[in-house]
Amino acid sequence: xxxxxxxxxxxxxxxxxxxxxxxxxxxxxxxxxxxxxxxxxxxxxxxxxxxxxxxxxxxxxxxxxxxxxxxxxxxxxxxxxxxxxxxxxxxxxxxxxxxxxxxxxxxxxxxxxxxxxxxxxxxxxxxxxxxxxxxxxxxxxxxxxxxxxxxxxxxxxxxxxxxxxxxxxxxxxxxxxxxxxxxxxxxxxxxxxxxxxxxxxxxxxxxxxxxxxxxxxxxxxxxxxxxxxxxxxxxxxxxxxxxxxxxxxxxxxxxxxxxxxxxxxxxxxxxxxxxxxxxxxxxxxxxxxxxxxxxxxxx
Amino acid sequence: xxxxxxxxxxxxxxxxxxxxxxxxxxxxxxxxxxxxxxxxxxxxxxxxxxxxxxxxxxxxxxxxxxxxxxxxxxxxxxxxxxxxxxxxxxxxxxxxxxxxxxxxxxxxxxxxxxxxxxxxxxxxxxxxxxxxxxxxxxxxxxxxxxxxxxxxxxxxxxxxxxxxxxxxxxxxxxxxxxxxxxxxxxxxxxxxxxxxxxxxxxxxxxxxxxxxxxxxxxxxxxxxxxxxxxxxxxxxxxxxxxxxxxxxx
Lengths: 299, 249
Ligand SMILES: Nc1ncnc2c1ncn2[C@@H]1O[C@H](COP(=O)(O)OP(=O)(O)O)[C@@H](O)[C@H]1O
Ligand SMILES: [Mg+2]
Fold this sequence. Notes:
The complex is a heterodimer.
Chain A: H1 2-6, H2 12-37, H3 41-50, H4 52-60, H5 65-86, H6 91-113, H7 121-126, H8 134-153, H9 155-163, H10 165-170, H11 175-216, H12 220-245, H13 249-267, H14 284-298
Helix pairs in contact in A: 2-8, 2-11, 2-12, 3-5, 3-6, 3-11, 4-5, 4-6, 5-6, 5-11, 8-11, 11-12, 11-13, 12-13
Chain B: E1 4-14, E2 17-28, E3 32-36, H1 43-50, E4 58-63, E5 66-67, E6 75-78, H2 92-98, H3 101-104, H4 112-124, H5 140-153, E7 158-162, H6 170-185, E8 189-193, E9 206-211, E10 213-219, H7 220-223, H8 226-233, H9 242-248
Parallel strand pairs in B: 3-8, 3-9, 6-7, 7-8
Antiparallel strand pairs in B: 1-2, 1-4, 4-5, 9-10
The structure holds adenosine-5'-diphosphate and magnesium ion (MG).
């Protein structure tokens, strides 16, 4: 058993990709907690799809992919805000418009450039964690440290802001700055995760571990810790599954995380579908109706 | 000199909907001030405009002759219930400690003094036993008391509450009014939006009657004259007479 666990670690590429997977699992769970409590899952999706053209252009001009992706994501949020505030179109539609446009532009650019350069569209879409270099590891580590530091240093202010924006603004917290900080956190985290899971699946790493934790605990920082546990466990397990069964790594990680979510969904002491049936006031209506349906069906 | 908020010619619109027109108003410390008016009268808007939470078209708001917006640390604001996400993963303690954030400062942890002040505030609203309870698992009245505790812990000078009595039990209402009176007596500004014109209105010293424009402001009994109410509610409000309550009591 132990040998099996150690075996993949003998390969340098596995070491690198495991480190990346763990770092990504960690910061995604933390930042994803903010997305989740603010109901901004769609924003996470929008930004992750919007980074694609930036990555393509960075590739073309031989720039840093992380920076290209980040700038692209930033521009997309600016566009979303312009549409939202300068027209009667609502935020969700604005996100949909912008992110699909950016995504399409990204795919077009990459398809055009991939002939001359030896790059693969699939790596952008679904990640290529087994191909990460030492400098990728370094960049991811730097981003992870920045993200964790920001969250620790601004924890109490971000808690207030994400819970009660107007109350926070009324007492004089610089809410625009906090909002910008939060956007930076989200952008940095998404960019750092692209190598691991790609633009299509990064949303899962952001939302699924945080949501799993939300079903289990009821304080933001504890939710973050539990989420990190879920995220890191998913990353490691996913990587091993992918190594031994020759599965694609990103999807393997996502499937483990989703499996853990299902477990929490069914068995959470406070919300579980099976462990906490009728009393719960949030889910039961459907549950009751289902039960009734089954009953009536038998009659 | 008594502390006071002075509002000069304040106008607000949302895109092309006019919400407030040319409001001139003084709110003095030491009195419990209620703000009344029909639904959509602009009560919440006025509160937010005073605190600088929305863009205003026109006008100024001063506190002791200095722009209020430059003195925000002394402001405590409790939004309408519907503005708060009650499923947020936070406990009673987490929420009350939010009142200590500006006093604590950036990058610092809460001091023991802050924790003691939060405990005292919880004691005042009789919520100490619920310290570790997630806010989603409280009754409406308890939730409102937690927010009141947050504003007490903040040691603000200006207290603004938007409809704190909606969905609240009798006991909570008594506790909250009691604290409001004490805050007012100790020289704070206490401004409370209250759309209910029932008996509880007699708790207020001063009233502000609003319907897009300022209809009347000042002493409660002056403001509650029938002609004012007719103007604010287009004659649709039931006759209100404090003496009826006094007789009944
Ligand atoms: N965010 C908003 N966007 C557009 N119109 C708004 C907004 N908030 C309030 N209004 C409008 O402004 C008017 C005053 O609203 P509000 O201040 O909430 O009234 P009240 O608190 O007295 O019920 C209403 O006509 C309302 O529809
Ligand atoms: Mg209102």
